[in-house]
Amino acid sequence: MARWTAADIRSQQGRSAVITGTGGLGYETALALARAGADVIIAGRNADKGAAAVKTIRQAVPSAIIRFEQVDLANLASIADFGGRLRDHRRGLDLLINNAGVMVPPKRQETRDGFELQFGTNHLGHFALTGHLLPLLRNGRDSRVVTLSSIAARDGMLRFDDLDARRSYHPMGVYSQSKLACLMFAFELQRRSEENEWNVASIAAHPGISRTELLHNGPGRRSPVSLMRSVLWFLFQPAPQGALPTLYAATSPNAVPGAYYGPDRLNETRGFPALSKVPPQATDNKAAAALWQISEEMTKVRFG
User: Fold this and answer.
1) What is the pLDDT of residues 23-57, one digit of tens each?
2) Is 260 a known active-site residue?
3) Out of 27, 175, 260, 261, which one is annotated catalytic?
4) Largest Cα–Cα distance in the chain?
């Protein structure tokens, strides 16, 4: 795995992939997979940004098989509609990358279904999406689900008495909780896949600290964290480098189901893909099972 890069990606011809998110890490992941020959769907809320991403990738890779599909991860009906469209038009899916996210809006906001925006989008939206696409993934070849967490998960705690942050909203704390939930979902999905013989590998990844628009788009460009992102840009690794752990988990024959990958240097903030240290709270299997049950109840999505 030493100094693994996108140049090490084996041919992905004949493989199909869905990636959530039209910019930043999602864009770089889609570009690398398109270069490797995969049939790629970029899924996101903004049709203009999606079209622009597809156009740019086609300019870089004239042979790319890529298109945009609209889905709003903050809207369960939109997710169900997207899943239905894919099930109607294809028999299988080889790769799902749960990448898109919302980060630290300064004031509490809600999804279309009334969930707190970060938990509702980052975790519940991808939970529902994975459930809707599971039948296609079960028909795929070497099927994998890669779910993005964050080094912020280290500070996350599942507040089962207030998952929706109605009693108290602290932007970074809620973000950390949502990314811990993503990590625990990835681990629990692998356990349930093994138990139910779904033959779908679930792997988690995180990008370290990368130069994307996530900090600008969440708290706003004039917020302290966004200004830090702009002024101290040199502390953030480029987005293509940040996408490497995801790409490794998605394509490497050596990626281990149920593992967690991130950058290998400077406390996992930058570098090349390596096994990441799992926060102790993410290893609580009982809490993960409880989170799964609550997520099913909140989204009305059942797996299997």
Assistant:
1) 999 999 999 999 999 999 999 999 999 999 999 99
2) no
3) 175
4) 51
